[in-house]
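Human: Here is a favour to ask of a fellow structure person. Comparing notes only helps if you start from a blank page. Give me a protein, with the fold worked out from its sequence. Please set it down just below, with no commentary around it:

Assistant:
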Amino acid sequence: MILFTLFAFFFAVFLLWRRARLAVAIASIAVFWLLAAGWLAAPLLDWAQRDVSHAPQPDFGPRTALIVLGDGTEHNGDGKLVPKHDAMFRIAKAAELYSSCKRHEATCKVIVSGGNPQRHETSEADNYAPYLLRLHVSGADLLLENTSLNTYENARNVARMLRGERYDSLMLVTSAYQMPRALLDFARFGLAPQPVVSNARHIRLGVLPRYSNLVNAEIALHELIGIAQFHVYCAIGWF
């Protein structure tokens, strides 16, 4: 939606500013080519994924909770509702951490946080749960938070779930591009989980435009605007 809004902006300027139509057309083509070819998308994505590649190794405690953030659902070729691409990395990383945790500690919980902002058949948390169970996460250790509609609500609702509970170690599992904003949101509710990156996105630089680069640019802009919005909302008292 952000890139579509940018296109709409250029188009509106093109229609309204008649004497500069050629310059506006050249500028819009240049911007979208730089995004699609990767030369502008790459620094945007690097900025969104900053400071997460050097996170320390997970430090499990006697009572550990793994918080997994949702990334949406989609229908596959057979019409079945499945986790989106990046969500599968998060599920796999959470199962890997859970397995390591159970080998060393007595209490290991997996909290999956994700409601149904897309208005599909089920929430993200409910959709992801069977995949975690198949990866040997015990049903007794699986907790679902299935009402949040965005990252801020993920943090707020998980904080409510953890209220009154004592955990020696909290870990946040999500993709690299979402981690900086997610940590801000969790800190807003007094939580400082260890960041565990499930996957990172990459740009393919070149001359020819690539749709994947536009997708990555959209994701990066969404996160960067979300971080700016967080600080503005905090400053005016909305968060």
In short: Residues 211-236 form the longest helix (26 residues). Strands lie at 63-69, 73-75, 81-83, 107-113, 142-145, 169-174, 194-197.
